[in-house]
Design goal:
The protein is an all-alpha fold and 184 residues long. The protein has eight helices and no strands.
C-alpha cells in the first residue's frame, strides 16, 4: 500500500469513489492513530475497539470532511480518535476524578527527566489513573486549555485544572521513585 500519497490525493480518490481510498487512508494513518488512542487507553483490546469505532465514524463521514490543506485530514481523524477514546472512558465509568481529600502528595520541585528514556516516561504516564491521564494528555500533548477540556468532558474548569495538578504531582512522584530505584 502506498503511504506516500498526499492527503489531497487521498481526498480526490474518495471524491471519485475509488474503493481503495479507504484502505490507503487506513494504511497511512493506522500507526499514528493507534499511538494516539494508546495515550488514553491502556488495554490493547480497548484500543482496538475504539479504533474500529473511530474508523467506522471516519469512513461514514469522510464525504462531509472539508479539506483545508495538508495536515487537515490527519488532524480531523486525530480529533475523532481522541473524542472516541474519551467517550469510551466515560461510557465505561472510568473517567473518575479524585476528591480533594485524596490529593497526591505535593511535589515541591519537578524532577529532572533529561536522563530518563522517553519510553519510561510514556509508561509512567500510562500508569496514571484514567481521568488523570486523559486530562494530562489533553493539556500537555493536545495543547487544550482547561476551558476546552472542561467542555469536552462536561466538567468544571477548576476540576480540569485540579486533576491536571494532581496528575502532574503523581507523575513527578513516580519519576522520583524511578530515579531513586534506577541507575542511569
Amino acid at each position: 500500500m502506498n503511504t506516500t500519497v498526499s492527503e489531497l490525493e487521498l481526498m480526490q480518490l474518495v471524491e471519485r469513489g475509488d474503493r481503495n481510498a479507504h484502505k490507503m487512508i487506513y494504511s497511512k494513518y493506522i500507526r499514528l492513530l493507534t499511538a494516539l488512542c494508546g495515550r488514553y487507553l491502556v488495554d490493547d483490546e480497548d484500543v482496538k475497539d475504539v479504533l474500529q469505532d473511530s474508523f467506522m465514524k471516519i469512513f461514514d463521514s469522510i464525504e462531509n470532511f472539508n479539506y483545508k490543506g495538508e495536515g487537515s485530514l490527519r488532524a480531523w481523524m486525530s480529533r475523532i480518535v481522541v473524542n472516541q477514546s474519551l467517550d469510551f472512558l466515560q461510557r465505561q465509568g472510568r473517567m473518575n476524578f479524585s476528591p480533594i481529600d485524596q490529593l497526591a502528595e505535593e511535589v515541591s520541585d519537578e524532577p529532572d527527566t533529561s536522563e530518563i528514556p522517553a519510553s519510561v516516561i510514556y509508561d509512567l504516564i500510562k500508569q496514571l489513573p484514567d481521568g488523570y491521564r486523559a486530562i494530562f494528555n489533553l493539556y500537555v500533548i493536545e495543547d487544550k486549555s482547561h476551558r476546552e477540556i472542561a467542555q469536552m468532558l462536561n466538567i468544571k474548569e477548576s476540576t480540569s485544572a485540579s486533576q491536571f495538578h494532581r496528575a502532574k504531582n503523581l507523575l513527578a512522584q513516580r519519576i522520583k521513585e524511578y530515579l531513586n530505584n534506577t541507575t542511569i
